[in-house]
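Run log // design_07
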């Protein structure tokens, strides 16, 4: 099976259906066999936990890849993770830490993460794997949050990172399409640092920390996977490579971005140069194919199939790690229970 997601009222209905399906099939936490440790509890809001980067972007023999790495890396350093109270029903705690690639805006530079903690029936933290979740382009991040809740239901800690311009990191700058690629560059660094945030949280099995990205978040995740082997498992949904082709040729959400850029005088030939610093294919040969899974939609007209296949080929993914869903960019959410089950199986293997 080659196992796909977006906007509008119809999309809202699809998300609702996905929620119903998840609630019907999600395994209870106990079925994942994590260890419940009564001594572990959620840290209180206001607590600060020290952390340190483990980024290891070594030299690459490819001059092009080395140039890309140079533009994305930062000098590893110590930093603090601040614990905050959950906002509404979005997770069990908020986590805050400084972006390793600050853009000069205090709101954008303070990374916000929703922690959906794996807990036992008595509310104790489970000693379990963790997955950093990178959301789609939907302003309220419904799919990212749905995936995070689904992973929590499978007994896995989920850390849904709010990309620059989303959630608590939203400012008027978020509506400037010409800055979108700058925010994605920052987001790539934020996601990689989030791995080291997960590693210092109580209850997280530091030998099994994965990353999952959908659509926009999937492109971010694809590039993150090429930085180094920081994540133990990588799951990419409805994304791939050839970011410039997606913007220039994709429909619906991609077409909206293209129209915004055109109004600013940015033409198709310029998009490739703008997207080049974060293009996943430049680092795809550095991805570990045995620890990476890619899901694309057979009828996806937002992210063309060719984009996903280009990444699968460049990353040398085995056929069993490239799953094509019989869906488009929005109806693919119907297959989310299947995808989550595979993530659970691979993270607990």
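design_07 sequence
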């Amino acid at each position: 099976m080659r196992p796909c997601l977006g906007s509008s009222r119809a999309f809202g209905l699809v998300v609702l259906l996905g929620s119903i399906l998840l609630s019907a099939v999600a395994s209870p936490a106990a079925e994942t066999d994590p260890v419940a440790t009564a001594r572990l509890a959620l840290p209180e809001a206001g607590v600060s936990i020290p952390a340190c980067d483990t980024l290891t972007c070594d030299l690459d023999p490819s001059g092009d890849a080395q140039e890309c790495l140079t533009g994305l890396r930062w000098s590893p350093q110590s930093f603090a993770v601040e614990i905050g109270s959950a906002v509404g029903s979005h997770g069990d705690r908020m986590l805050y830490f400084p972006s390793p690639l600050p853009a000069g805006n205090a709101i954008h530079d303070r990374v916000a993460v929703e922690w959906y903690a794996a807990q036992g029936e008595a509310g104790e933290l489970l000693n379990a794997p963790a997955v950093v979740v990178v959301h789609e382009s939907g302003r309220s991040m419904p799919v990212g949050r749905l995936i995070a809740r689904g992973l929590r239901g499978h007994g896995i800690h989920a850390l849904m990172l709010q990309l620059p311009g989303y959630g608590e990191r939203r400012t008027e700058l978020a509506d400037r399409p010409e800055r979108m690629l700058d925010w994605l560059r920052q987001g790539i660094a934020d996601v990689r640092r989030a791995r080291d945030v997960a590693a210092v949280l109580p209850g997280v099995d530091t030998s099994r920390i994965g990353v999952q990205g959908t659509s926009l978040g999937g492109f971010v995740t694809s590039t993150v996977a090429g930085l180094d082997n920081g994540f133990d498992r990588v799951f990419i949904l409805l994304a791939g490579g050839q970011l410039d082709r997606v913007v220039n040729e994709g429909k619906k959400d991609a077409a909206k971005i293209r129209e915004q850029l055109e109004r600013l005088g940015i033409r198709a030939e310029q998009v490739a140069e703008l997207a080049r610093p974060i293009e996943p294919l430049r680092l795809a040969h550095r991805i570990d194919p045995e620890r990476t899974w890619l899901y694309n939609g057979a009828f996806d007209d937002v992210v063309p199939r060719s984009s996903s296949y280009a990444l699968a080929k460049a990353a040398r993914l085995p056929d069993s790690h490239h799953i094509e869903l019989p869906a488009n960019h929005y109806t693919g959410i119907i297959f989310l229970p299947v995808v989550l089950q595979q993530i659970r199986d691979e993270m607990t293997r």
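The chain has a mean pLDDT of 88.
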